[in-house]
Amino acid sequence: EAQVTQNPRYLITVTGKKLTVTCSQNMNHEYMSWYRQDPGLGLRQIYYSMNVEVTDKGDVPEGYKVSRKEKRNFPLILESPSPNQTSLYFCASSFTGNQPQHFGDGTRLSIL
Amino acid sequence: GNSVTQMEGPVTLSEEAFLTINCTYTATGYPSLFWYVQYPGEGLQLLLKATKADDKGSNKGFEATYRKETTSFHLEKGSVQVSDSAVYFCALSGPSGGYNKLIFGAGTRLAVHP
């Protein structure tokens, strides 16, 4: 089954404790992206990757890092999480950036 | 820059009612337009898309027409069901904002009751 898998689905943690949200896709997509969803703001892009070892900033990259060492994986790293990063996060993938994107089921992060 | 504006929700309808969710966009050139749907506890799923002016996207009884003259992409369905209850997002991609991301509206929550 074609899918984008995120882990964990839920996480409650404290300010400053490094965390990683994993994202994996099994569709051999070259393009992957991270979004955060906040009430009244829709989804906003954090980072994206056009291919292995190629990443670039989206609209709200501050406080986040990503890496793309393999085509299937695109982890999101919060080196020092803060409460304003409490949000619902989605990973997405597609063959190219302008194709419809497949989304994971989301990761709800709460930073206390 | 590019942007998408959707009607605010929630939209509450009775089963079999007609649905319209308004979406307008700001962009230079000809972006691609999408409607995504998010069911409770799930990620977004592509509902329909249109890539050029006057294109009509359709899926599962939903339709939307790409109107360049009014910069709109309104979502319609003739007869909604309880199972259509979800959050609907209008989105665009490119050209001036780049094809490397989707720009989303704020989302419109639809609640359909029996």
Give a written overview of the molecule.
The complex is a heterodimer of chains A (112) and B (114). Chain A is mainly beta. Chain A is 0% helix and 51% strand. In chain A, strands 2, 4, 5, 6, 9, 10 and 11 form a seven-stranded mixed sheet that branches. In chain A, strand 9 and strand 10 form a beta hairpin. The N and C termini of chain A lie far apart (36 Å). With 114 residues, chain B is an all-beta fold. Helix content of chain B is 0%, strand content 49%. The mean pLDDT of chain B is 92. The interface between A and B is medium-sized, with 26 and 23 residues.
> Which structural class do the helices and strands of chain A define?
mainly beta
Q: Can you count the beta strands of chain B?
A: 12
Tell me the distance between the termini of chain B: 41 Å
Oligomer: heterodimer
Give the termini distance of chain A in whole angstroms.
Answer: 36 Å
Q: What is the H/E string of chain B?
A: EEEEEEEEEEEE
Contiguous uncertain segments of 5+ residues of chain A: none
Q: Major sheet of chain A: size, sense and barrel closure?
A: 7 strands, mixed
Describe, in short, the structure shown:
The complex is a heterodimer of chains A (112) and B (114). With 112 residues, chain A is an all-beta fold. Chain A has strands at residues 4-7, 10-13, 19-25, 31-38, 42-51, 54-57, 65-66, 76-78, 87-94, 102-103, 107-111.
Protein traits:
heterodimer; A: 112 residues; mainly beta; seven-stranded mixed sheet; four-stranded antiparallel sheet; 11 strands; 0% helix; globular; B: 114 residues; six-stranded mixed sheet
